[in-house]
Amino acid sequence: MSGARSLAERSKDLRMMAIIGSRLASPDRRPRRRVLAAALIALLAGLPGAARAEKAEIAIAKQFSIAFLPLIVMERDRLIEKHARDAGLPEVKVNWLTFSGPDTMISSLLSGSADVAAAGIPGALIVWARTRGSRQAVKGIAAIGAVPLYLVTRDPAIASVRDFKDTDRIATPGGKGTINAVLLQMAVAQTLGQASVSRFDPLLFSMGQPDATTAMLAGIDTVKSVVSTPPFQDQLLAVPGMRRLFSSFAVMGGPHSYANVLATTRFHDENPKLFGAIVAALKEAEATIAADPRGAIAGWIAATGSKLPLAVAARVLDEPGTNWSLTPQNVMTFADFMARTGMIASAPASWHDLYFPEAVSDRPGG
Fold this sequence. Notes:
This protein has 366 residues and is of the alpha/beta class. The protein folds into 2 domains: 57-146 and 256-359, Periplasmic binding protein-like II (D-Maltodextrin-Binding Protein, domain 2, 3-Layer(aba) Sandwich), CATH 3.40.190; 150-252, Periplasmic binding protein-like II (D-Maltodextrin-Binding Protein, domain 2). Helix content is 44%, strand content 13%.
């Protein structure tokens, strides 16, 4: 079997340990005892009984948006704990962390304060490119949240992307590497030409989605436009005077994954059963949402304490193509664009390069 040591291999190791042990005991082998002892330790480490215990406590980082609905379902239904028990692991404690922006999500993963984190596809591509080949290489467990993002404005002088002036400002939840900012660049390139791809970069300023929504609704003069995510964009569009300038599904030519659920290679390799439990939990959450998406959104409202009516929060379902599949969708479109504009050195040869194989390798991703 792949990944398992044969009886012959284990017997060979035991014979070698016996030989090393006899030589360590021999009085005429003193100069070589340290080398022999090191070899014995290495052999012992390779035996099944000497395997490193898997983590008993993990932290998972997520954000507020409905795009992260599978993680909300996993937390509510304690799915990781359930599948960890099914895998024969001792009780696993799962700590859920919620951040307002993607930068802190990835930082938490690289620092080890989170074991799993969900980040927008562009951010996931950037950290993949920076860490590949290292022990801390970051890859996707799965994609989540094929939901549209809208550029929303309340400025009466702006009817399209062409109308923004150098004095205007656009809120996004982070810097240039956020999915919001990259989608805006793509829309600008399509509307004004590739040479103008970075033209709006100076207009961007960082503000978390809940805060940007509050500022837009309050009429704060410095916040008149935002590249928003569901349900915040739907909350804005329910107010007279708010207008949608584009949908990211139109920019991308169809539905696209919003985020990747990420882990380091080290976590993947050192915790195979726990990693498998996370994959199983993601798949169960995917099935739960597909069976009753409106009910899952009602669960998001309850879990986050949102004051939004279900009728507003569920408007994301009105956009054709919205889904919470784990299958990567239009990920390579992001990768190719980011490689052309220098955000990453080169695009992966295939979307498979971006993901661990357990959850999505057999799916028709793209």
